[in-house]
Amino acid sequence: MLLTLSQWLAQDIRAFNVLGYITLRTVLATLTALIISFIIGPLMIRKLTAYKIGQSVRDDGPQTHLVKMGTPTMGGALILMAIMLTTLLWADLSNRYIWVVLLTTLGFGIIGWVDDYRKVVHRNPKGLSARVKFFWQSVIAVAVAYYLASTAEIPAQTDMIVPFFKEVAIQIGFTGFMVLTFLVIVGTSNAVNLTDGLDGLAIMPTVMIGSALAIFAYASGHAVFAKYLGIPYIPNTGELAVFCGALVGAGLAFLWFNAYPAEVFMGDVGALALGAALGVVTVIVRQEIVLVIMGGVFVVEALSVMLQVASFKLWGKRVFRMAPLHHHFELKGWKENQVVVRFWIITFILVLVGLSTLKLR
After folding, report:
1. Residue 321: how many other CB atoms lie within 10 Å
2. For all residues of the chain together, what is the average pLDDT?
3. Between β-strands 169-170 and 160-161, what pairing exists: parallel, antiparallel or unpaired?
4. Rounded to an integer, what distance in angstroms lies between the CA atom of residue 307 and that of residue 304?
5. Contact 193, 109 (CB under 8 A)
6. In this structure, how many other beta carbons lie within 10 angstroms of the beta carbon of residue 196?
7. Which of 81, 27, 156, 107 lies closest to 279 in space, CA to CA?
């Protein structure tokens, strides 16, 4: 929106040409999302508190979590609002990738909102059934996968890129791309949702990974940088850096309210949407393997739940004291802050490893 306005004004005032730079608009998007969240955040928290939209706590969980009972949830709507408004303001709205990412994020956010609404307003502890939730997640993911596959114009848009190797790209074909995209988007969405169990635990890794993806998006969409770094050049992906900037700004502002002791929780509306956002950006810039590396905490959290369920059903035994994994460490005696900060440190290290794949080829 503002890019179009600046291009029109630049016809008479050349200084407005500066807004054509993706890097500047990415910085401005980050700051704008921060400001929007800081302005709206306190008001939203007061409204959620007034309507008694509070968090429920598992009886079998750590006893220290009982104090969280009633803390406002569904705060992820704040993140979504900031991301959407900021991206519409600063991104190039003629770029199709921007709309793919925005609509995917919004779609998963709606699924999470309905789930949260049923839990906290209708007092239905199950919310949306797992089957219904998975169905709608699948519908959106398959639609995105089909659109990206059917509109691909060059092999780089669908090949599976192997990091650390300059010339290695696996041709997975239309069906392979569909399956991979589905797994990345749905898997990342649910993995972030499972990780969102402690104050600030999910949002900071999301911010760090989103920052790294902004770099990947910009480099992939810049022909000179892509050639220098030895990564595939994918036209028009650079604009996704603006979206990632908005995600980072909104995420950091939310952390202000979500840091221990949390004033608000993001709920499924935020966790499902943010996970899907990371997933779809990753697919577009063709860095699925790198996402597994950078999102190692999310991957391990999801695997811990799968192992726990499988072990209990098959042998009647639990692998962990409690799943997801962060609760296991709490029950072993780690304090909540220790778990959160240590998982942040691990993510920071993994993100650096992921970024190193840009040049180590």
Report:
1. 14
2. 90
3. antiparallel
4. 5
5. no
6. 27
7. 107
- Residues 105, 273 contacting (CB under 8 angstroms): yes
ω into 163 cis (within 30 of 0): no
Q: Residue 72 pairs with which residues in a beta bridge? A: 54
**Closest alpha carbon to 56 in 268, 260, 252:** 268
Cβ neighbours of residue 323 closer than 8 Å, sequence gap 6 or more:
304, 305, 307, 308, 309
| Digit-coded pLDDT (tens) for 53-79 | 655 555 555 655 555 666 888 889 999
Q: In whole angstroms, what is the distance from residue 103 CA to residue 203 CA?
A: 21
- Number of independent structural domains in the chain: 1
Q: Which two tokens stand for residue 225?
A: 């940088």
Say how many C-beta atoms besides its own lie within 10 A of residue 147's C-beta: 15
User: Between helices 96-120 and 267-284, what is the axis angle to 10°?
Assistant: 160
The span from the CA of 225 to the CA of 83, in Å, is 27
**Structural domain boundaries, residue 112:** 2-6+22-53+71-285
Q: What is the pTM of this model?
A: 0.93
In a domain, 330, yes or no: no
- Which residues, 6+ apart, have CB-to-CB distance to 318 below 8 Å? 308, 311, 312
User: How would you classify residue 52: left for phi > 0, otherwise alpha for psi between -120 and 50, otherwise beta?
Assistant: left
Q: CA-CA distance, 289 to 321, in Å (whole number)?
A: 30
Helix spans in 19-95 (H): 22-50, 76-90
CA 140, 209, 58, 305 torsion: positive or negative? positive
Distance of CA 24 to the CA centre of its chain: 22
Q: How confident is the model over 193-219, as pLDDT tens digits?
A: 999 989 999 999 999 999 999 999 999
Q: What is the DSSP string of 292-355?
A: HHHTHHHHHHHHHHHHHHHHHHHHS--SSSSSSHHHHHHHTT--HHHHHHHHHHHHHHHHHHHH
Of the CA atoms within 13 Å of residue 343, those in its CB half-sphere come to: 32
**Does residue 217 form part of some domain?**
yes
Query: Considering the domain boundaries, does residue 134 fall inside one?
Result: yes
| 29 DSSP β-pair partners | none
Query: For the chain, how big is the Rg over CA atoms in Å?
Result: 20
DSSP state of 262: P
- Is 361 within the bounds of a domain? no
